[in-house]
Amino acid sequence: MSTQEKIEQLQKLTEQAKAGGGAKRIEAQHKQGKLTARERIDALFDPGTFEELDKFVQHQCTDFGLSEQRPAGDSVVTGYGKINGRYAYVFSQDFTVFGGSLSKVAAEKICKVMDLAAKNGAPVIGLLDSGGARIQEGVDSLKGYGDIFTRNTLYSGVVPQISAIMGPCAGGAVYSPAITDFILMVKGTGQMYITGPAVIKAVTGENIDMEQLGGAITHATKTGNCHIVAENDRDCLESIRKMLSYISQNNSDEPPYIDTGDDPNRTDEELRTIIPDNPSTIYDMKKIIKKVVDNGEFFEIHSRFARNLIVGFARLDGNSVGIVAQQPQHMAGVIDVDASDKGARFIRFCDCFNIPLITFVDVPGYLPGTDQEYRGIIRHGAKFLYAYAEATVPKISVITRKAYGGAYIVMSSKHLRGDINFAWPTAEIAVMGPDGAVNIVFKDKITESSTPDETRKQLIDEYRDKFANPYVAASRGYLDDVIDPKDTRPKLIKALEMLQDKLVENPKKKHGNIPL
Questions:
Q1: Which whole-number Å values give the CA distances from 410 to 35, 84, 331, 380, 414, in the listed order?
Q2: What is the pTM (predicted TM-score) of this model?
Q3: Which residues are catalytic?
């Protein structure tokens, strides 16, 4: 065979590999509103930068007639390229080839790019669209999942790991995305569940469809497994690109700086009037966040889950920061089981990848009631506390209004190694709110009064004037400054600049034992 013939053979085999499961199956994929594995990669990476690996790999199974079906590349496309000019690795499951099922060689391909990502310090992205384990390969397929789970675990906190659920993801396969840092799901096509509707019907008698059981909205609102809901494949892939623009490449890297053109000394008079005079009146914390950060751009994470807490990414003077904040519009910003989990996980991600934390505080306390107690608010709330105390990145907080009791301590307080702690003049820092405090401290005085309602009101007003303000905490050094709300942005930026060389090391240990 001549050199020219060999080159033609290479071109032919390459075209066969790129054809995946063939035209009919590609058409079926498109009819479901889904892109193919390679189309997804093209949309994710910067044009012309993707380099495919292992496109000629074939499975070795000879049982059940598979010896006659050995498509090049098998059921996953793997490789590397650039996203926003920085390297990233990807594995994209190809549903047109054996339903994207995981074979021994497909797992080996996935493990190879995960190993390369870890060795070279770059994110790894999984685009999941699979019928699950390849039944014909039996235990070899199960081994493949185990190998992937092990790498998910070992590389957690080493390089960012992002999962996009763009088709079915069922059974044991769901544990890989569950270990990764963020999960995105496509509405209507992305689904995750341990057992499908048919098995649930047989075992429990429940009738439920796949979307209700494990669709994007279910996981975004009920289980908290989904961080971002995408309208379609392209929306999902664009969200990944946007997310990565805030995130460092690895645990030794700094987040990317982007010149946003927003004046670091910009002040905002409207911040002075956002907090209502009535301490029981709600307001939107997102308005404060967007007025403070660069160009009002806030990339929210987990927006549909535990809405009493806000988390997400933004920039201050071009530098990436993680935002954690109460949302008074939902459940008054109280901390509950789900908010604790949401906050703790986000804080630990930011700490893993050197992203400073900015915390906006307006918290009346933990949610009371038997439901929360029985669901383990003690254990879950401790996760939140643990995450803040453990974090060594720069930590800056701003108390806008309420900060009561244990919830005050948790929210990046000086007592959990907060670096800089600001408060607005509207801040109220106390063991509990004036109403509850007066009922306890002055119970006898109110009872014995001839006008208990008037006495109680007078005592509440006195308590609020004396204790429900930021100055007692400031006098103890627990606050570094009480600031004019309009100056919040420049104050945060100057504090971040001061903390840019912060160096703190936790005690040497194998790892901590967070109360899971």
A1: 44, 36, 18, 12, 10
A2: 0.94
A3: 171-172, 406-407
